[in-house]
Design goal:
About 55% of the residues lie in helices and about 10% in strands. The chain is α+β, with helices and mostly antiparallel strands. β2 and β3 form a beta hairpin. α1 runs parallel beside α3 and α4 packs across α8.
Length: about 400
């Protein structure tokens, strides 16, 4: 049965964002199974976009209809480009192109990572609801998606009952991964400590650039969806600046990789191929994000189904403004712990017209700060409670279907 456009767009957004997270996680862990999940999702994405094109053609009965459908297809094409770039990152792992240990060491400093955990024989989670399993409180890891056989379930609810063989796609602190693996009947990864050989400052510089490129590209995607959701040309312009930044970072990455190649022996030089491929794919993700923002910059309102799909996705984009006297005023993000308290991840902060991307935990919030965040819909109200923002949730105050 052919799904409607809102369902297809929501599914495409959830799948493409999950693919990006899983692809980088596959690099982090050197995990072929995680990389294969990306390939499975890419195949699903292809089918979703194909179905979307069919629905758009069937719905076009006039030039005005065709113009409206073209907007949806433009967004679908951008999502597909993000998915294709994520697949290319995953294939760096599957094709053993080589990833320097320095890159995994740098990624290990991330506050949150993605992981794939399968419920195996001897697990203690099967036949329990997610609420009963209390995985977030026990391990710090949140289930953002689940695969049962060939079907993916995005954002499963607390009353969802787990079963043997389920594959959990999770996000949380690096140390939580092994805790979940043990509950699921698997062996811990036992990640090796960071390497101490401190070789090649040129390679270290290349790795630092790639990590920054990855971070900027991920923020660009979140801000692009926000720009469309809020019809915010200022946000769209910020995405353009981020895309320019990604271009500059990729050119710098090429330069430092070439310098590092001069210092490496034949046995190690293959590692650099993986760096360049991941860098190129990250730059493509930012390009696709920029292309999406054209919908926010257009004079005409985007098709209502686009906004409705973004508002009902597994992870939606929203904002919250800090008000005087709120629990957030004067407190740092580390104090407030929005990720664990609300499930919302802070992409950026707008202060006095200037955007601060991926704000550090030590940054104290001020009255008037606008937090741009992504996460589950139920987290929006909790985040706005913390900031004293009296507005209703995004589903109520942004769209009227």
């Amino acid at each position: 049965m052919i799904r409607n456009l809102k369902e297809l767009l929501t599914d495409a957004k959830d799948a493409s964002e999950l693919m990006v997270d899983l692809a980088y996680a596959a690099v982090f862990f050197g995990d072929d199974d995680l990389a294969r999940e990306v390939i499975h999702l890419e195949q699903r994405m292809d089918e979703t976009v194909r179905e979307m094109r069919i629905v758009c053609m069937l719905a076009s009965r006039s030039p005005d209809d065709a113009e409206a459908m073209a907007e949806i297809l433009r967004m679908a094409n951008s999502m597909e480009e993000i998915a294709d770039a994520a697949e290319d990152i995953a294939r760096v792992v599957l094709k053993d192109l080589g990833v320097p240990g320095e890159l995994r060491d740098d990624l290990r400093h991330a506050e949150e990572v993605m992981a794939r955990v399968k419920l195996r024989e001897g697990n203690v989670l099967a036949n329990r609801t997610l609420a009963d399993a209390m995985i977030p409180s026990e391990t710090g890891m949140w289930i953002i998606a689940l695969r049962r056989d060939v079907d993916y379930i995005f954002g499963p609810s607390g009353d969802f009952v787990l079963a043997d063989g389920d594959v959990l796609i999770m996000q949380g602190p690096p140390e939580g991964v092994d805790l979940v693996r043990e509950l699921a009947g698997g062996e811990p990864f036992g990640l090796a400590p960071p390497r101490e050989d401190a070789r090649l400052s040129h390679l270290d510089r290349a790795v630092d650039l790639l990590v920054e490129l990855k971070n900027v590209a991920e923020v660009a995607v979140g801000m692009a969806y926000s720009a469309i959701l809020f019809r915010d040309a200022g946000l769209a312009a910020e995405v353009g600046r981020l895309e320019d930044r990604c271009d500059d970072l990729y050119y710098e990455l090429q330069r430092w990789v070439l310098r590092a190649a001069a210092d490496l022996g034949d046995d190690d030089i293959d590692e650099l191929r993986g760096l360049l491929q991941i860098g190129l794919s990250s730059e493509r993700i930012a390009d696709a994000a920029k292309e999406m923002t054209r919908l926010a910059e257009a004079d005409e309102e985007p098709h209502p189904v686009i906004g409705a799909a973004l508002a009902e996705a597994d992870e939606i984009v929203s904002d919250a403004v800090v008000h005087a006297g709120s629990p957030a005023e004067g407190h740092s993000l580390s104090d407030l712990r929005p990720e664990t308290e609300t499930g919302m991840y802070i992409l950026a902060i707008n202060r006095d017209g200037r955007w601060i991307y991926r704000p550090r935990g030590y940054r104290a919030l001020e009255v008037g700060d606008r937090l741009l965040a992504t996460g589950p819909e139920e987290g929006v109200a909790m985040l706005r409670d913390i900031t004293g923002d009296p507005r209703p949730t995004v589903a109520e105050d942004t769209f009227s279907a």
